[in-house]
Amino acid sequence: MTMKTDAIGKEWPATTYEVGKEKIGEYARVVGLDNPVHFDREAAKAAGYRDVVAPPMFCVVYSSPALAPAMFDPEVAMNFATMVHGGQQFEWGEPACSGDEITTTAKCLEIFEKEGRDGKPNNGFYVFETVSINQDGQEVVRGTWTNIVRGV
Amino acid sequence: MAELNAGDQIAGLQVTPDKYTPHRYAGASGDFNPIHIDPEFAKAVGLPNTILHGLYMMGLVARSATEAAGGEPRSLKRLSVEFRGMGAPETEIAVSGSVKSVEDGVATIDVVAAQGESVTIKNAEAEVAL
Question: Which of A32, A57, A64 lies at the smallest CB-CB distance from B15?
């Protein structure tokens, strides 16, 4: 079957997220981080951060909202019944701190078909990119999200 | 500053997420997909039970790589992972890794996360500034 690839290169409207101190702490506790720079303003400043600093993977909190409309776009037409989150990459720049206003845009990088293993039907790969910029125009994180749909 | 050399094993992590970890991660992250929090829903779509969020396990991999570099969050520059088997709550997750190379003050660390024989995160590669 030939996959729909019209959405390659498509971009979706930006979303903006304001990072909060308590939200950083909530995330840090769930993944077991106890470095005071994630909880205490003075400790963060003493370590050279502008304010309480988010753990790097907190990026999912502020960048995912930009991705949601891309995932559900009928032009992308992913079959959620057989979709799995296959891979993920983040490249971090300026740390995200409490009080930051982070704007994220999502784009479809690639849609392609790849042979399944052991003669199984082909898998569809849907690769999206999110780019997150803070209020000073600095890039905070760039995410590459790979979703795999089995048996396209 | 952390001293890392090619071939070093990192300390890694052993974490056992409790029954409600997926609920807390859902709240913290905003990902309320019912496969992570609703056993009836999970079973109805063919899963053995609720499963851990892949990005939660990636969070543990990120924590492990960051701690290997001395614990400063700004030291983690890049992390890429492949999600494989599903992770289950109430089962120990072991994150382990080794330093692949060190160049220009940046260490590249290969990392895996597994629950017993079941690998949940494969081919993870972290770049940390030293």
Answer: A32
Tally Cβ neighbours within 10 Å of residue A18. Answer: 12
Task: Give, for all 130 residues of chain B, the pLDDT tens digit.
Answer: 578 999 999 999 999 999 999 999 999 999 999 999 999 999 998 889 999 999 999 999 999 999 999 999 999 999 999 999 899 999 999 999 999 999 999 999 999 999 999 999 999 999 999 9
Minimal C-alpha gap between A137 and chain B (Å): 18
Interchain proximity B62–A53, CB inside 8 Å: no
Select from 3.20.20.150, 3.10.129.10, 3.30.70.20, 3.40.50.300 the CATH code of A11-19+56-149.
3.10.129.10
For residues B66 and A58, give the distance between their C-alpha atoms in angstroms, rounded to a whole number. Answer: 14
| Nearest-angstrom CA–CA distance, A28 and A38 | 7
Which A residues 86-145 touch B at CB under 8 Å?
86-92, 95, 144
Q: What is the pTM of this model?
A: 0.95
- Residues of chain A with C-beta less than 8 angstroms from the C-beta of B58: 57, 88
Closest CA to A106 of A148, A73, A57: A73
